[in-house]
Amino acid sequence: MADGHGWVNMRVPHEWTHPFVFQARDGRSWEKMLIGLPDGVNIDGRDMGGWAFSVFSTRLSKQDKLDKKPVRIGVPADRSVTFFRGRGTEREQYRVKDPQLLAEAIANRTTADYGPHVSELAATDTPACALPQIVRGELADAAPPASEAASAKAVHLMGRLALDDGFIARMDTLVHRAAEAFAQDEYDPHATLRTVSDWTEELADACAGTYGETYSHDDVLQAAGMALSAITETINEQIGKLTEAGLALPHIAEANRRQRRERIDTYFEERAMLDPDTLLRTTYSLNAPTTAEALWAMGRVYGSQPRTELIDGNADHQADSNIAGVDSLDILIPSSGHSSLSR
């Protein structure tokens, strides 16, 4: 419903929402959410299942998504809502002039007796980073799927990780080694998460001595998962570079080129759908963020902490590793050959 300040507010199930980021010309990041509609969302008698629209993220919507609660979103009351579906030459658009119709349709759908089915769009038309799975040509998410929502302490620890120079340096090394492993079809997100968890635990121990903060094993694992997810697109950019250098397996290289072509098509299609004001102020970026930028952006979403250097930036420093017999990142994420990252 309209809030009296020019916005129509609504709540959508968190499963419908897929966060993504694009960058302004001045370097600022703009956080948005793609909303994929399931069957049964009816607007003026038209079933909008399989269609999607996007909104700007807010502090409340990001927290709702993190907590796996109905996500609060808003759209300008005086602007039409643009929906889209399909890819390439099959891309379609549909505009609804009155956003209140959308709010009512979503409210009716979420209170109706439907199963948990979410439309195909959620699996096929969202940014790759939004889905916790591995696809053939690049990573959809570098981390395994999370089993539960992150705790408040895990979120706080993620903020610490995001601005620690030593942790960032280690993750930068991991980006290159993970890309090499994926290009050879040897990437294992669970083994990689164990590596990042070891580093996160090391930083958590340093926080205990420096700030008197204590974190549980689950806090550490959840924060590590968020940090690993944050660098997904950075890893993917390296996979693309390995592909063009002829260093990826043929079937992975073929899939990678196809997915990058699709991303470029989507780039221009999304640009074409932006309203004139937004188009003047912003532009999507086809380039992935650096490791530091990716971690900083994730930390900013959850509330970043002061910049520190609580741990050594040497990624091969694994004195407290929980992985028996492993004392080097070269073993965890090798440049070639069989490793603990292999399936």
Please outline the helices and strands.
Elements: E1 7-12, E2 17-24, E3 29-36, E4 42-43, E5 46-47, E6 52-56, H1 59-67, E7 71-76, E8 81-85, E9 92-96, H2 99-111, H3 121-124, H4 152-162, H5 165-183, H6 189-211, H7 217-230, H8 232-244, H9 250-273, H10 276-281, E10 282-283, H11 291-302, H12 329-332
Antiparallel strand pairs: 1-7, 2-3, 2-10, 3-6, 4-5, 8-9
Helix pairs in contact: 4-7, 4-11, 5-6, 5-8, 6-7, 8-9
Structure, explained:
A four-stranded antiparallel sheet has the order 6-3-2-10. It starts with 6 loop residues before the first strand and ends in an 11-residue tail after the last helix. The radius of gyration is 21 Å and the shape is globular. The chain has helices at residues 59-67, 99-111, 121-124, 152-162, 165-183, 189-211, 217-230, 232-244, 250-273, 276-281, 291-302, 329-332, and strands at 7-12, 17-24, 29-36, 42-43, 46-47, 52-56, 71-76, 81-85, 92-96, 282-283. The relative contact order is 0.14. It folds into two domains: 7-126, no CATH class; 130-332, no CATH class. Helix 6 packs across helix 7 (217-230). It is of the alpha+beta class and 343 residues long.
Low-confidence stretches: 1-5, 113-135, 317-343
Sheet with most strands: strand arrangement? 6-3-2-10
Gyration radius over CA: 21 Å
Number of domains: 2
Shape: globular
Tally of DSSP β-strands: 10
Which structural class do you get from the secondary structure elements?
alpha+beta
* Biggest sheet descriptor: 4 strands, antiparallel
Count of helical segments? 12
Q: Kindly report the average pLDDT value.
A: 77
Order of helices and strands: EEEEEEHEEEHHHHHHHHHEHH
Distance between the amino and carboxyl termini: 49 Å
Instruction: Please estimate the helix content.
Output: 40-55%
Q: What percentage of amino acids are in beta strands?
A: 5-15%
